[in-house]
Amino acid sequence: MIRILLTASVVLGSLSAGAQAQNCMQYPPGPERRQCAAANNPRFEAKLEKCKDEGRAMGLGMGKGDPGLKEYVQGCMQRR
């Protein structure tokens, strides 16, 4: 009986924790997705700024015909 109660508690606890985490991929790319990711991961903003700084240090910029910094930041965020 106690095992059943313990198992039920663990299952219900994991379901409620999973329900609290929001799937940010449901938003289109942009500020809403960024806000969602920052809310779910407190280190997100620091990581984003570090990746931007690395890209700028490499000489990448946000020009109309050169999306180099954006592509670098996307890759940096995925590999770290």
Describe the 3D structure.
By secondary structure, this protein is mainly alpha-helical. The protein has one domain. Helices cover 69% and strands 0% of the residues. The protein is built from four helices and no strands. The chain has helices at 2-20, 31-40, 44-57, 68-79. Helix 3 (44-57) packs across helix 4. The protein is elongated. It starts with a helix and ends with a helix. Residues 15-19 have low confidence and may be disordered.
Q: What is the overall number of helices?
A: 4
**Got a strand count?**
0
- Structural domain count: 1
Strand-residue proportion? under 5%
Note the main sheet. Answer: none
* Low-pLDDT runs: 15-19
Helix % is: 55-70%
The value of Rg in angstroms is 19 Å
Give the class from helix and strand content and strand pairing: mainly alpha
What is the helix/strand order? HHHH
- What global shape is seen? elongated
Query: N-to-C terminal Cα separation, in Å?
Result: 45 Å
What oligomeric state do the depicted chains represent?
A: single chain
Query: What is the typical, i.e. mean, pLDDT?
Result: 78
